[in-house]
Amino acid sequence: MAIEGIKSYYSANKAKYTTITEEECEVIIEATLEIMETAEQIIGEKRTLEILEKAGCPVNGKKVTIPRALVLKAIETAPSSFTLYNRNGEPAMEIGGTNSYFGLGPTNPYFCDFESEERRTSVSDDTKKCMIVADALPNIDFVMSLSGSNDGPANNAEVMEMKMMLQNTTKPIIGWGNSPEGIAEIIEMCGAVAGSVEAFKEKPFVGIYVGDPVTPLTHPKDSLEKLLYCCENNIPAIYLSDSQLGTLTPVTLAGSVVVGLAEVLTGLVISQLVNEGCIYVGGVINLSVDMKPVNVCYGSPEFCLGNGACYDVLHYLNLPIWGTANITDSKFVDEQAAIEGSMTSLTSCLNGAHLIHDAGFIEGAMSAALEQIVMNNEIISYARRVREGMVINEETLALDLIRSVGAGGTFITEMHTLKNFRKVWESTLFDHTIYDPAIKPTRMYQRMKDRVASILATHKPQPLEPETIEKIEKIYQSSLERISKGKKK
Amino acid sequence: MSKITELAVVVEEGRIDDVVAAVEAALEEGNAPMDILNAGLIDPINVLGEKFRLGEVYVPELLISSKAMKMGVDRIKPLLAAGDVKVLGKAVFCTVEGDMHDIGKNLVVLLLESAGFEVIDLGMDVEPDDIVEAIQENDDVQILGMSAMLTTTMYAMKETIEALEEAGLRDRVKVLIGGAPVNQIFADQIGADGYTTNAPSAVELCKKLVVA
């Protein structure tokens, strides 16, 4: 054991591609533990502070340091894998090992309108359409709401979004919350779908993205309240750190990764102190910063590298991993979006991140587009085929066949070809045709639009029972009452 | 090279470890404190500002030089007469209630201070009433700058503007907003006087607002 008290799962979880070596993981882990033990972090929530103090963390006002032993224990007690089910209670995703699943991004304020292609405020109907498109696409494994519900009150937008998601896809869902009250209503909705809240918790098809630390080293009240709520109620919780090179974290990747991991492992410690053995998924986004205007960049080689290093470290620690890919800073579903999506999809899936979110996002998570979901689906499919690799055995070497077809022959009429040619990756969007003056070639963007239009016209996600829909609607109505009461106060 | 020119180079290069010694060297050479201030400390920042506009210099370079300038000004301040350091304007800045994301706000404050503004920084997660109180207590404040990073907190800006109206203070200050989810349309909706997308343009806007 290279780190006293931590077993390495680096080889056990070894992905097709790793960003850093096992020894480098150990350097990063040691550095992270050192920072947690020697640099104070702000804990903005009173009960969390008490929990940490009781567990032996030195407390100084709102600031704490976290002893190494607590981190090691949390790493040991947190589950390394779990199953997320679909809405029908069937296993859909085995989170763990090097399994990689891709999903949409969460709520955002704007949407690129499919008809007009104009940027406008997002509404709940956008979430519905995103669900229909994601439900139809084979490489979108789980969903998030992608667009915010700005047609309703902001204080319970997450409940509206969950309502739209539950009704328009059977795929596993990652929701979010304004507050523990909102999450409670979401879970009540899930209970309505599963038959009871207990039945839902037995086979969860929804996890909750509880929020972010405020990097560097600050854990705000609202994120912690939601984290505590999810842990105490056995709802899979996701906590995601945003490192920004040179503004919120050191400009050098190694230091940036350490800050992000320190925050994520702090969330882990809290989760295990609150409810030992509860499911906790951590992740770090490493954003480079364009220092001319000081804007963050979702697309960059550093994004791939920093995130990859975190995936390797979390594999080493055998913990569930929240990943990020497919997002672009571009205002359009364009060449930049394609490049950024390709690089991040390929590296995150080769690197074996578990739940890789943010498909569908454009404009650095401020907007989204249906065409982007379709393009990301294609990119993911491509990346997955690369990750699958190639098989080398007697059958695939086909030496007898090479001899029998011989010089100048053709393989196209051979049984071996017939048996295997469909295994070769096939695009659903690319144009491989030879130029024909009689046919006007189309751009890929047009083909993506056609695909969206066809999905929206023909794809009907499996509906919920009318009485379930009624129950969900009732929960939403009481949620509206809750927030209108809150306002009157 | 005169010691003032050397100081200007130190500031332009952002050499914060050397700036105090460079100011002292310029004083020893017999230069008037006002000349040191203008030619040794403020001029190089103006030069950098121009280079920034041309895209030759990036924000970290601008900030570190501003920090060097501030250190130099602190050294020379006791030697200046009261009215010598010109204050361009006075502003109150904060992130709004519920919002703990302050990097953008901090950047604007730093750049504003180096541009010659006096800034009262109320910090993060500041309730409308506390903002109103700060403006009440400082009747020479011309600008209120508010920032929000989340769609869930941006509406606190609206509430703050309403609180200013209730307190009868709305006309006394120009309200400037910023942050990832807000834009000009939102600024217009809530009745803010200005919005910009980044810190350097926020400084330009503040300059315009205090002149207007």
Automatic annotation (TrEMBL), chain B:
Keyword Methyltransferase: yes
EC top class, as a word: transferase
One Pfam family, short name: B12-binding
Segments forming domain B12-binding N-terminal: 1-88
Enzyme Commission identifier(s): 2.1.1.13
Ranges that cross the membrane: none
GO molecular function: cobalamin binding; metal ion binding; methionine synthase activity
Gene Ontology CC: cytosol
Coiled coil (UniProt feature): none
An individual GO BP term: tetrahydrofolate metabolic process
Domain B12-binding: 88-212
Protein keywords: Cobalt, Metal-binding, Methyltransferase, Transferase
PANTHER family: METHIONINE SYNTHASE
UniProt similarity note: Belongs to the methylamine corrinoid protein family.
Protein name, UniProt field: Methionine synthase
